[in-house]
Amino acid sequence: MTPYIGRFAPSPTGPLHKGSLVAALASFLDARAHGGQWLVRIEDIDEARTVPGAAEDILQCLRIFGMPWDGEVVWQSRRKDLYQAAFERLNGHVYPCGCTRREIADSRIGIASDGAAVYPGTCRGGLAPGKTARAFRLRVPDVADADISFEDRWMGKVAQNLATEVGDFVLRRADGFWAYQLAVVVDDADQSVTHVVRGADLLDSTPRQIYLQHLLGVPTPSYLHVPVVTNDLGEKLSKQTGALALDLAHPLQELIAAARFLQLPVDRAASTEDFWQQATTAWAARFLMNP
Ligand code: GLU
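^ thats the input. predicted complex w/ glutamic acid below
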């Protein structure tokens, strides 16, 4: 059996909040329940969104919550050579795109499930005269060959047609930064991650990642997407929607609340160690039949 390697991969755009604690808790529990490793990777590839000090705050929160990680923390901003190398390997599938966001939105071809406009393929056959390359996109297969499906350990069967629901997607952004989709695939493969456990806001990204894994010839990990914590309006908790900060003076209460959100039967615990023991047992009972 391959050894289990899981990971938590926060973007340092602010401190850990009630929503990101749920994702951290789920991936930590899955690693513990499997007796595996749990890595932490700081996804600071989008330098425009990175908030100074946020990564250190997140790591400090993990310590407070009693979630030790294995090995050294990995920082995406220090791994650009790896993304460049993967990009070069994808050469035959990539093309420059000169479209602005506005032009893509105006094409009204459709809205992808993540709210972005489906790319209409304008630059597929080459840049129009007068256009300059802004971003670089990956060509997805034609509709008949573009179905990607996988079995999610929480959500069940997930299927997406990359041609109709996503379109050719960006690997290198107009601002010069590598896109999340490329970085995450390169890193999960480079770190030999076997199990990805994260929030369901990334469910729609998974087929793109699986397609990139096929093209790069790297293994596809097993996926488990946990429900996302929302506010009263049904919006994902984030800084923009008024995420509730964690009360770091009462970590046990926060852990119990996060476990309750995942419907794990842990209502009372004497200490954080006691909490982790109970929660790991509960997680194993629920998910280990389905590794
Ligand atoms: N960095 C992403 C986030 O904080 C998570 C990426 C992943 O787990 O694949 O939402």
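The pocket of glutamic acid is lined by residues 9-11, 43, 184, 198, 202 (CB under 6 Å).
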